[in-house]
């Protein structure tokens, strides 16, 4: 009985596998049947394609997307607008309107295509079904036929409009590719926004003929002229600001003007360039694909630089005028305030830059431009840029960390690499330090985050200053302590006078080492007190040494020992 159960289980498993195999074969057969019967092309069905006008000429090829664009642009360059009109889907028009409006719409569409978009010929299929055989297998449209292709997107009246081509078929005819009906309906509005200006229409016909790179001869001539006009505007702006600077002394107005001189000149260049372009010329899509992002980039970042330069000039002027006072002990709150203000200023700069980048990306539609494709293909450049951005971001975060943690504040006295300095400025990538002899040290912010340094005014600006004296072993230490106590009592820069000490801390074969300790209220006064303390005790030691000059050996100042052999 027990042997029966394994046999039944094996039989059931075999039956299940056979059923699954039969279902798989059936599904495969159905798929093959469907594939065999679904031979209809992937198209838009229309009752009558452009009925009411003559058949399309033989030299207008419309069987593939690439052939359609090539034939349309060739007809446009020849000025054969009747032939170009057969590349448009005008099923929304009556037969009479098709005959009359077809050439006009073709001429307008040609100017729009030439002047507003850059055709990606490498991504435009040359197959009737528009299957892209060059794309990656990860692309969801890889290997799939298409009946609608977007050539580009442009802005019209505050909204985005697509220029598309579609594959259409009328009963009993082969499918053809045409500019989509919706695109044709939008042609008048597109032409009003991207068609030639009044000035261009007045140019001689010879200048409106193709030159090279799909450019017209007037574009080849006009582009350098527009650039020269913009350079002249920038030069005049630079000179005008320079004249204003000479009228002011070294005050806050002069500092602000110096700070904004370069960004305002750049803004004048970009603004003049954009104004002349918009008023007089409508360049082709190839030039616009390069100029539009560059122009927007210059305008946005020049405007941001003007704002930031004004802010920097005001804050730097205030900080520089009071940096001497910040180092005093009673300006603890001021050091905290200006350090926090410096951090907030840097955060504001980062926010403004991010906003500027966002505006540029939104205004230029970089993912629709030729520049995005070039950037995406530049793998090595992208890696280098990412590495540089990582370093820059690290410096910015280190700068903010210093400011918010207040490990080094504006006005703090620090000992950095053996130099006694005051912190003058905390920037994105560096700290500016002023030494006691008015030298300026530019130190990377990473050094203040990763390495140790001395901050003499972090908690309490008071310091214990130390001076060493090397005296003869026979010097009277008790007498020197009385002299030191007198100095401590009379010097106003010595605080906590009861903690001042004179100690013998070492000796050498020729001298003993005395250490003088006294506390000062801040580093600046402490340095001066330390020098006075050393000078005072040396004078006293010299005086006592001179008083014992009649003795055979000196009693205070050390001498080199000599051994005489008689």
TrEMBL record:
- Identify the stretch annotated as signal peptide in this record: 1-31
State one Pfam family annotation: MS_channel_2nd
The membrane spanning regions, by residue number, are 215-238, 259-276, 296-315, 343-364, 370-389
Annotated Mechanosensitive ion channel MscS domain residues: 392-458
Against SUPFAM superfamilies, the record matches this protein to: Sm-like ribonucleoproteins
Which subcellular locations apply to this protein? Membrane
Gene Ontology cellular component terms for the protein in this record = membrane
Q: Care to name a GO molecular-function term for this sequence? A: mechanosensitive monoatomic ion channel activity
Q: Which Gene3D superfamilies match?
A: 1.10.287.1260, 2.30.30.60
Q: Which UniProt keywords apply?
A: Membrane, Signal, Transmembrane, Transmembrane helix
Q: Which InterPro entries match?
A: LSM_dom_sf, MscS_beta-dom_sf, MscS_channel_2nd
Q: Just give the chief location class.
A: membrane
Q: Which PANTHER family match?
A: INNER MEMBRANE PROTEIN, YNAI-RELATED MECHANOSENSITIVE ION CHANNEL
Question: What name appears for this protein in its UniProt entry?
Answer: Mechanosensitive ion channel MscS domain-containing protein
Taxonomic lineage of the native organism? Bacteria, Pseudomonadati, Pseudomonadota, Alphaproteobacteria, Sphingomonadales
């Amino acid at each position: 009985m027990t042997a029966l159960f394994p046999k039944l289980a094996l039989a059931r498993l075999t039956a299940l596998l056979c059923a699954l195999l039969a279902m798989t074969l059936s599904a495969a057969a159905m798929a093959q049947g469907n594939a065999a019967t679904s031979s209809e092309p992937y198209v838009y069905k229309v009752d009558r394609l452009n009925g009411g006008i003559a058949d399309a000429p033989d030299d207008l090829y419309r069987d593939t997307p690439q052939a359609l664009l090539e034939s349309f642009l060739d007809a446009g360059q020849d000025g054969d607008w009747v032939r170009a009109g057969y590349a448009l889907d005008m099923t929304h028009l009556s037969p009479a309107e098709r005959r009359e409006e077809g050439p006009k719409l073709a001429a307008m569409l040609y100017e729009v295509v030439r002047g507003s978009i850059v055709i990606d010929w490498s991504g435009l299929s040359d197959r009737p079904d528009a299957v892209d055989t060059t794309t990656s297998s990860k692309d969801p449209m890889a290997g799939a036929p298409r009946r609608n292709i977007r050539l580009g997107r442009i802005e019209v009246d505050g909204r985005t409009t697509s220029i598309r081509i579609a594959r259409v078929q009328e009963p009993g005819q082969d499918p053809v590719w045409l500019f989509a009906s919706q695109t044709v309906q939008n042609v008048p509005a597109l032409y009003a926004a991207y068609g030639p200006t009044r000035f261009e229409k007045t140019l001689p016909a010879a200048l409106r003929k193709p030159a090279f790179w799909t450019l017209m001869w007037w574009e080849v001539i006009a582009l350098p002229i527009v650039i020269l006009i913009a350079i002249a505007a920038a030069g005049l702006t630079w000179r005008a600001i320079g004249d204003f600077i000479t009228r002011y002394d070294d005050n806050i107005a002069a500092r602000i003007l110096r700070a904004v001189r370069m960004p305002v000149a750049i803004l004048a260049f970009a603004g003049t360039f954009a104004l002349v372009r918009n008023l007089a010329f409508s360049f082709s899509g190839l030039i616009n694909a390069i100029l539009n992002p560059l122009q927007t980039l210059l305008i946005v970042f020049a405007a941001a630089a003007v704002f930031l330069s004004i802010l920097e000039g005001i804050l730097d002027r205030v900080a520089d005028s009071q940096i001497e006072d910040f180092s005093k002990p009673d300006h603890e709150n001021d050091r905290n305030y200006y350090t926090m203000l410096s951090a907030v200023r840097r955060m504001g700069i980062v926010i403004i830059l991010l906003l500027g980048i966002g505006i540029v990306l939104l205004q230029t539609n970089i993912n629709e431009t030729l520049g995005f494709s070039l950037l995406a293909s530049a793998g090595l450049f992208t890696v280098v840029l990412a590495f540089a951005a990582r370093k820059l971001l690290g410096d910015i975060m280190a700068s903010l960390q210093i400011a918010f943690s207040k490990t080094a504040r504006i006005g703090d006295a620090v000992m950095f690499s053996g130099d006694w300095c005051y912190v003058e400025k905390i920037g994105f990538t560096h700290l500016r330090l002023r030494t006691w002899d008015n030298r300026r040290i530019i130190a990377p912010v990473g050094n203040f985050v990763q390495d140790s340094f001395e901050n003499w005014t972090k908690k309490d600006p008071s310091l214990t200053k130390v001076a060493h004296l090397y005296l003869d072993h026979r010097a009277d230490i008790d007498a020197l302590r009385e002299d030191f106590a007198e100095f401590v009592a009379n010097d106003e820069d010595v605080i906590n006078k009861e903690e001042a000490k004179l100690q013998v801390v070492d000796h050498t074969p020729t001298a003993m080492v005395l250490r003088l300790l006294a506390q000062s209220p801040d580093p600046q006064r402490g340095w001066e007190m330390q020098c006075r303390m050393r000078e005072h005790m040396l004078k006293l030691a010299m005086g006592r040494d001179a008083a014992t000059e009649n003795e055979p050996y000196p009693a205070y100042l050390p001498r080199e020992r000599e051994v005489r052999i008689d």
